[in-house]
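Dear colleagues,

As part of the handover before I leave the project, I'm documenting each prediction I ran so the next person doesn't have to rerun anything. This entry is a single chain, and its sequence is reproduced below.
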Amino acid sequence: MSAKPRRKGHERIHRHAGHGPGSPGLLRWLVMAISVPLPWIGAGIAFVGVSRLARGLDWGAAMLALGIALIVIDVALDYWIHHDTVARADAPDLNARASRLAGRVTVLDRPLIAGRGRVRIDDTLWAVEGPHDLAPGSRVMVTGCRGAVLLIDRAPLTEH
C-alpha cells in the first residue's frame, strides 16, 4: 500500500491545532498558565515575609526572599515567552510603518525650516526632520525614523 500524499490544507489545520514547528507546544502553554498567578503569589509571600520580619518572627527573611524570587522568575519567564515570539514573527515590522520607508525618495510638501517640515507619502502626511533648510518641492530621501517622525536628507541626483 502506498502512502497518500498530504494536501496543503491539512498542514494548515494541524499547525493551527497546536501541532507543528510554529506552534507554542504544551510546555509553553503550561509556563504561560503558571505565569499568570505567579507574581501575585510571590507578592503575597513577600508581604507576609515583611510582616513577619517587622514583628520579629522567624522565617520572615526566607519568605521575603522566596516572594522576590517568584517575581523574578515570573519576569524571566515572560521575557522568554515573548522574546522568542517576536524574534520568529513573519513580519516583525508589520506595525512599524515609518521604519519601512527608509530609502524611499519623495518630495517635500512644506519647506524644511529649522530642520522640520512635512512630506506626503502615499496617502499620509509625515512630519520630517533633516539637517538642511530646503524649499517645498525638493527631492528628499528617508534615512530613518524617530518614533513617528521621519529623518530625511537631500536625495542623491539621478542620471537620466
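The longest helix spans residues 60-87. The CA atoms of residues 105 and 141 lie 4 Å apart.

All the best with the project,
I.
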